Amino acid sequence: MMNTNRDSLCNVIELIQQHELGKAIKALYKILTESPHLGNIDELQNIREAYSLMIDFMKRGYKDDKREELYLSLLQKLFYLTSNVENSWNTMNIASYVEAKSIAKDMNMSFDFIKNILESFVTDITMASLENDETRNQKTKKLYSRHNDFVNRLFNAIWISNQWSDNERNFYTELLVSPTIDVNDALLIISAISIGAINIFDKNKLLTLIEVYQRGTDERIRQRALVGLAFSQPDGDTANIFPELTDTLEKLFANKNTQRELLELQMQVFYCLNAEKDNSHIQKEIIPTLIKNNNLQITHFGIIEKEEDPMQDILHPDKADKAMEDVEKSIQQMMDMQKAGSDIYFGGFSQMKRFPFFYPMSNWLCPFYTEHPDLQSANARLEDSKFLNTLFKNGPFCDSDKYSFALALSSVIDKIPANVREMMSSSESFGPSLPVGDMQTPAYIRRIYLQDLYRFYKLYHKRTGLINPFENTFTSMEFRSIKAFFFASTLFRSDFLTESKLSLGRFLMKQQRWSEVNDLLLSFNGNIPDTNAEYYILAAYADLNDSLYGMSIEMFRKALEIEPENVMALKGMARASLIEGDYDLAEKTYATLVRLFPTNKNFVKNYAITLLKSNRITEAMEILYKIDYENPDDISIKRILAWGLLCQNKPEIAKKEYDKILSLSDYKKEDCLNAGYCAWFLGDIMQATESFKSFIQMSSDEGNTPSLRTVFIEDCDIIYKYGITDTDIQLVIDMVEE
């Protein structure tokens, strides 16, 4: 036991991924010899003997048309065995696995028994509903309590189960698409399958999720299976061991609706990943406004309404209206974030997961239903589920947060004012709620389930040791993987997903997720869509972000060969070439943009800059005078105009422009630098040095103190143009730095 650790098992998996069967057999044999309690060494011996026989046949010069097929089957068998050994190690060393094994101990996992229990529960509940009120309530409470214990044990038995056989896959597939079991049971089983497959890849668990998604009739079942199959993708090169999976997924990806739902799911995942950042924004920017302007006060007697100060109406007659306006803006901002896909409730509800309810793993992913045995006490305190029913139907929260809300509120309900308690039972108690139809859409169902999963992996008290699909993981080969970014996985390298990947790329660019953009580009695996400019644009902007300007220009060039007037490509090309110093290319590109968009002020300004850089000063100044006349208050235009005047050997006129710029409150350090040049060229050395000192000081205040010599070298063309020598430069530097 003490000689075996997870890393040694991961090493075996890596050897299998690399198709090094002989080395992998030796490595696993060493593990099982030292720790025989982890697995059946006889299974390994059978694989070892089959491999030795294959080697012997090859030594004798026999040709075997089935050799490739046999080698692959031995790799698969060794992968199954190694995965089961890893699972066994987990159940002895990882807290959540240890607990699950204890809960599922001696569980009868026969197919007939499981099917009978799940179907009988539906029948028993139906029969109990025919009884009178008192008898019905007693019977249903007992039925739900007993059934919850069974489902919890089943959940734990499934998620820590060994590699599934084809029979297990067929049984659970048929069970989950059957209308004869309770939907909540099906949803929990799907989550159990998913968690197991996320931690240790299982081909048959993945195939189960795929088939349930395709065949399911209940949208909740389909969408939970979709999330599961997306997150259960194998790491690294494991997919190469199971080539049949590629064919299965190709058929799945061929469906247009599936392509759309997978793309939507991937985007929703990235919104989920922003939960903590969004929470920080809410806590710092929004909540203070709401707290400042509420009319409630928390005391040791409970929550009471503040007494209004009559003098406030006299001294500040508009204060109440202003406060209400601020509150409405804050609430609207949160609603806008929620509509965009943000998880706005994570921060608040993350503090409400310490109830005993959340000790069992299954409760984190259990659909919200008011009959849950662990809500019986809360039910009684919250007036026989009237509030809970409202929460269930109208609450815009994920299921985990609904349980938190119900449990937290039941513990303080007697301290809440009567009028507030009465309001909570109304449909308006949670503010604007989604129509029932919207809450049944695939997108909404997925979002709610993703939030449940995110909370589970972030907050479950025994999460250590579980693979979190929302976090990066690294193998010993330094391969970065995030299971939630399934579009970058090996099995998603399909031509059917080309358009979806390009759409995802645009989304990731807007989110400034450049690392993920690069991973997405790698997922094309050389299958570049030659007739689609978007791929090259995506690659070009990724290179531009990485400061690979030359490569970026080449990618933009390829995009423009396909679509000569593509605006994104033209803008990127212009920017990259300007930074790279290819002013001729920048000038030609901006000229095209100005031709296409003659009223776009930014394009016109940048075009003028490229003309100045290309020493076409007269043309540039004609443009600058015109747009300055049209936009007299635009300081950015005046900056370019003033510099153009210096380039045009008109420092006297340029000085007037710099005086205007420096008289404004929002001038920049570069304005001080350029005004210093202007004074220097006019012979006012004292004014020049003062301006240069201001430039240095402002740079220092921003945390960046530049070398004045380096700055002068960068602008040496215009400095030398005015007859200033190297000695002059050194003297000015000394005067500034003295």
How many extended strands?
A: 4
Q: What Rg do the Cα atoms give?
A: 34 Å
How much of the sequence is in beta strands?
Answer: under 5%
Mean pLDDT: 87
Distance between the termini: 71 Å
Summary keywords:
69% helix; single chain; two-stranded antiparallel ribbon; 4 strands; two-stranded antiparallel sheet; mainly alpha; 738 residues
Question: How does this model look, in words?
Answer:
- This protein has 738 residues and is mostly helical.
- Helices cover 69% and strands 2% of the residues.
- The chain is built from 39 helices and 4 strands.
- A two-stranded antiparallel ribbon has the order 1-2. It has a two-stranded antiparallel ribbon with strand order 3-4.
- A hairpin with a 2-residue loop joins strand 1 and strand 2.
- Helix 2 packs parallel to helix 4, helix 7 runs parallel beside helix 9 and helix 11 packs across helix 24.
- The longest helix is centred in the first third of the chain and has 27 residues.
- The protein is globular and about 100 Å long.
- The N and C termini lie far apart (71 Å).
